[in-house]
Amino acid sequence: MAHRKFNLVDPNKEKMLYIYSDAELLVNSMNDWTMNWLPNGWITTSVPPVKNADLLKLLLQSWGNKRFEHVNAQTEELNWKACWNRLAGYPARNAALMAFHNHP
């Protein structure tokens, strides 16, 4: 998981670490919304509990100087963000497929 990688890369949380993701919900959650949800007991403004709060809490534990940035998905751009996003997508899709097929 990403939170484990954060701690390996910067255990003292001193460096700025940028995390690029095509998951806009994740980027917005980590950059904007978690700081409101945390003092509100992980309840959204429309009152339902935050979905996947357990995973967001794990990421927050490793927060430090981290910044999530959105990159476009499924793009043919040749910039480094798009290239790394495509490379990261392969193992993510494979893991999702394995979980789907192994789920009873």
Written description of the protein model:
The radius of gyration is 15 Å and the shape is globular. It is built from four helices and two strands. The protein has a single domain (2-9, 16-102), classed as Ribonuclease H-like superfamily/Ribonuclease H (Nucleotidyltransferase, domain 5), CATH 3.30.420. The mean pLDDT is 80. The protein has helices at 2-9, 24-37, 53-61, 80-102; strands at residues 17-21, 66-70. The two termini are 23 Å apart. A two-stranded parallel ribbon has the order 1-2. The longest helix is centred in the last third of the chain and has 23 residues, at 80-102. The chain has 104 residues and is mainly alpha-helical. It comes from Phytophthora nicotianae P10297. This is RNase H type-1 domain-containing protein. One of its GO terms (molecular function) is RNA-DNA hybrid ribonuclease activity. Residues 1-97 form the RNase H type-1 domain.
Topology of helices and strands:
Blueprint: H1 2-9, E1 17-21, H2 24-37, H3 53-61, E2 66-70, H4 80-102
Measured by DSSP, the beta-strand proportion falls in: 5-15%
Shape: globular
Instruction: Give the % helix.
Output: 40-55%
Q: Using the CA coordinates, give the radius of gyration.
A: 15 Å
Order of helices and strands: HEHHEH
Pfam family, one: RNase_H
InterPro entries: RNaseH-like_sf, RNaseH_domain, RNaseH_sf
GO molecular function: nucleic acid binding; RNA-DNA hybrid ribonuclease activity
Protein name: RNase H type-1 domain-containing protein
